[in-house]
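Supplementary Methods S3. Complex input for the pyridoxal-5'-phosphate-bound model.
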Amino acid sequence: MNWTMAARAERMNPSFIREILKVTERPGIISFAGGLPSPKTFPIAEVNAAVTKILTEDGEAALQYATSEGYSPLREAVAKMLPWDVSPDQVLITTGSQQGLDLIAKILIDKDSIIWVESPTYLGAVQAFTPMEPRVVSVACDDDGLDVELLEVQLKNTPADQKPRFLYLLPNFQNPTGRTMPESRRAKLSVLAKAYGLCLVEDNPYGDLWFDQEPPDTLTSRNPEGTIYLGSFSKILAPGLRLGFMVLPSVLYPKMLQAKQAADLHTPSLNQRVLYELLHSDFIPKHKPSIRALYKSQLEAMLGALEREMPATVTWNKPIGGMFLWLTLPKHIQSQALLHKAVEQGIAFVPGAAFYANESETEHNKLRLSFVTASVEQINKGIAILAKCIADEDGFQPTRE
Ligand SMILES: Cc1ncc(COP(=O)(O)O)c(C=O)c1O
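Predicted complex, serialized as structure tokens:
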């Protein structure tokens, strides 16, 4: 049979990260690559108890088709959980926040629509947007995220017919860089967004994973009708439950709902009820601090190992939450070439090139390290091996001691 595929299928490329994850499944590999939460944090006993309770008390409804908006008590609980004034009517339960990105692509992007993204940005968002054929334009960023001064210039210089449909950004513990946007920038961005009519998509799957201090208020709380908020339970419960949500401006809700209906009718009813049970017990308020403490200690182990082992030509940031840090190699070392050598030595990471929307701005000497899935022992061993691979590429460089 000759199947003729849609042109958009041509534009879908296998995720670079998924290819790397295949490598990491090899026995013996120490992986800093995947964005996988630590399985130690998965609430297996609590989910088990919740499933038993639901199936015993409400089994028929939990296994039946349901409304596309989501389980009403869950929508109420989500609205109540958020630290700004949210009506349950604005909440759309999604099958992971990744589905929210897909719905946004369908409802907000036409062929050649312009969308703005951070540089670098979350690869999965670019993958969700690309089939709709947008022109993806990057906005300038630095170690504190979006550079609002340069954004203002960009906004001033953008003719009306080049206006973006939205700016997609991750203010908290960004994937891939781990950086966080400070309050001053958020405040200025909100003012600019209102003044220039710039619509925002705020993706916040890592927001609860702060270490010492809560991040500043969300952008959505400052301008709810001008911002789409994407939330996720993947990082504080378990990604396999596939539970996320959108908080939507009222004007967008009906169309997003139709797109959701067409995509999967609704998010699994049983999973939604499990989440509702957990949100209603005192489990989550106790669980979040334990994840934060674990991830903070993992980060400290990785920072310690980097300090000890890395050549003096290598630098990295110190995230204040989340799961990733961003490492900068000397300019002449390409992280993609380094990956091949590192994998031979049993180490995996994600080369920075995977996260840039456009080749012209790609920085080939960056790489993303996840500090949450490997054990401390593996971190110590793996960073030492990685440092040796880098030193070998770089010629001999004295270590920091
Ligand atoms: C920035 C960002 N957005 C969205 C997602 C998708 O998360 P999920 O669909 O599991 O909620 C991820 C997953 O890692 C992510 O890093």
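The chain has a mean pLDDT of 95. The pocket of pyridoxal-5'-phosphate is lined by residues 35, 96-98, 122, 124, 170, 175, 203, 205, 232, 234, 239, 244 (CB under 6 Å).
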